[in-house]
Amino acid sequence: MKISIEGFPFLIFVSYLVSVVGISRAADTVNTTQVIRDGDTIVSPARSFELGFFSPGNSTNRYVGIWYKNIPLRTPIWVANREFPIRNTSSAALKFIPTGDLVLQDENNATIWSSNVTRAARNPVAQLLDSGNLVIREANDDQPGNYLWQSFDYPTNTFPQGRDFGWNLVTGIERYFSSWKSNDDPAQGEFTYRLDITGYPQLVLKRGDSVLHRLGPWNGMQFSGMPSIGQNITFTAKLYMNSSVIYFREDTLDRSIVSRFSLSPSGVAQRLTWVERIQEWVVYYNLPTDICDNFGLCGAHGLCSTGTSPACSCLDRFVPKDEQAWVRSDWSGGCLRRAPLNCTRDVFLGYSGIKMPDSQFTWFNESFTLEECEAECLRNCSCMAYSNLDIRRGGSGCLLWFGDLVDIRQLTGEEQMIYIRMAASELDSKGKKRKTLIAVLTSLAGIILLGLSLILFFWKRKKNHQNLRNEGGPEESHKEDLELPTFDLWTVTKATNSFSISNKIGEGGFGPVYRGMLEDGKEIAVKRMSRTSTQGLDEFKNEVIFIAKLQHRNLVKLLGCCIQGEEKMLIYEYMPNGSLDLILFDFGMARSFSGNETEANTMRVVGTYGYMSPEYAVDGLFSVKSDVYSFGVHGYYKERRCLELVDTNLVDSFYLSEAVRSIHVALLCVQQSPEDRPSMSSVVLMLGSEGVLPPPKQPGFFAERDVRAAENTSSSKNTVSSLNEYTITVLDAR
């Protein structure tokens, strides 16, 4: 086939048409065979954004950029060749080169801008997405994680809503805003707006290397210096942090709203929204907003407030460094502590409702409590302040400040607290006059308290003597107060996981018992008085006093108590060998005897009769075996009927031999004669072994007794005037 030379121009024209048709068929993409020249554009699928050549403002220079498609005012959100304008676009072109890079070449085929992809591509395409992002990817792979390059990684002065800016810690790419030089020149200006991650992340506006404005560190809900970013009904603000990225994002709650964030040539950061009715961009907010947004206006340790005149003042217990300059409204010198610090005696005073200061600061484990944060700061004398990292859900994490505290401003309605290091002498002092006044008042109060204490002492002493006379016997002197360690409610609540049902190990007439663990790792059992308990405060105190004095060999060790508000609790040492029954017993009416005694006698029997041994209930005789009886009173023994005691809900989860053995041991504990009952150490041994058990004798419910034998085995001088016998022929479980 021959082709005449005259037909060659026609072939060129056909080739051009094919190229144009190729672009029109894939209006949002450019492939390796296509070229975009001045006048050509590609449009995102939903026609939200458009890419092509444009001239900004009154300039005649040409740039390749992306702008909003359906907004009459052409508003670029990205510029490719911002530093290298094209003055003659007759032969300029945006196209792919064999290396897989998308490049912009001028009329001399010199490359003035390149995507500089880091990975080679076999069949690359450039696609404009509806988000306004221009991406380069493999033609058959549209997964965002596999993009070869994207314009969002290289923003200029504007971002549409819902875009991340900050750091990709894997690639090292930082997304930040930089202003244009002017409205006619998109070259990089002198202002930048970026996410500073040298400490805990915060947004910072700079002019060159000088900080002009900062929003304060992120507190889990918003940046501390601008609560409106995190608390409005139009936009949401979030900070994303993990091992790969640290990004900040602002997004609209209503997707129909068209919004953008832009940094103006004059250094004003703005959030703008498009109002269709008036066909204009309307400012939603500006940064900086007011005089207190100027970085470090009041100097070190100075506090700025727009509601006062002058705007600057010193933090409490600080004074101006230069009084004369302060009077002239020159606050740059800042403030000094009124009293010098002493690392071994310093204290921390809390301030709320302020923008968190700027200085060298760092952050610690996000699970730290505020108390752990304070301890961390106390370990380092150069630590000047501390605060919670995240104020959500009661607060967590730790922020520490070092050096001078700068750029603090007063806010309203803020919950975050910061604790600033002060000299201990400043805790209760505001000058010599106040010191003198406090000294006088303290002395006067001391005299009054001493007088009241003496009156109370003699009144209580008189009342105790009167009680002894009325109630008969020196035994009542055991009701004197006994000092015992106390636990605060917060410590007990934390130890028991807020009295979680999973920590509950039993319940008696006094109330439920919970297992817990103190911060030092010590396990405890907490006996919490139920509000429906029949015991009152007197019984509670009685149990505390008598168990603390007694330290009975058969009782679990009492560690302390907690009385706070309506809460009344006893804290025992937790014993994993089955001590729960002893804790559940009602010792509110307990009696004591000397540690070297094995038995004793009382003139008046007190306690819960269901738990009393017969010799104590009738004769007032008690010994270590009386408690053994109380331990075994839960037993029940009839021929082939002992398993009726077992809870039906446990039928499928217990061993028959263990149940029978437990009931057998219980019956040994409730035998009529104290001498026949085993000691508690023997009880533990019998329950933990498989040896043969002796047969139990008659339980103590049979009232006949050998009084003379009782007299010979006890220190009692009592005799029984008559022997009224009775028997109980049918026994039912309590």
From TrEMBL:
Bilayer-crossing regions: 437-459
Topology with respect to the bilayer: Single-pass type I membrane protein
SMART domains named in the record: B_lectin, PAN_AP
Top class in the EC scheme: transferase
Gene Ontology molecular functions: ATP binding; protein serine/threonine kinase activity
Biological processes annotated in GO: recognition of pollen
Pfam families: B_lectin, DUF3403, PAN_2, PK_Tyr_Ser-Thr, S_locus_glycop
EC number(s) from the headed UniProt entry: 2.7.11.1
Gene Ontology annotations for the cellular component aspect, listed alphabetically: membrane
Catalysis performed (reactions): L-seryl-[protein] + ATP = O-phospho-L-seryl-[protein] + ADP + H(+); L-threonyl-[protein] + ATP = O-phospho-L-threonyl-[protein] + ADP + H(+)
Positions of the Protein kinase domain: 499-734
InterPro entries in the cross-refs: Bulb-type_lectin_dom, Bulb-type_lectin_dom_sf, Kinase-like_dom_sf, Pan_app, Prot_kinase_dom, S-locus_recpt_kinase_C, S_locus_glycoprot_dom, Ser-Thr/Tyr_kinase_cat_dom
Subcellular location: Membrane
Keyword terms: ATP-binding, Disulfide bond, Glycoprotein, Kinase, Membrane, Nucleotide-binding, Serine/threonine-protein kinase, Signal, Transferase, Transmembrane, Transmembrane helix
Signal sequence annotation: 1-26
Record-annotated Apple domain positions: 343-424
Protein family membership: Belongs to the protein kinase superfamily. Ser/Thr protein kinase family.
This protein's name: Receptor-like serine/threonine-protein kinase
Species assigned in the record: Sesamum angolense
Upper taxonomic lineage: Eukaryota, Viridiplantae, Streptophyta, Embryophyta, Tracheophyta
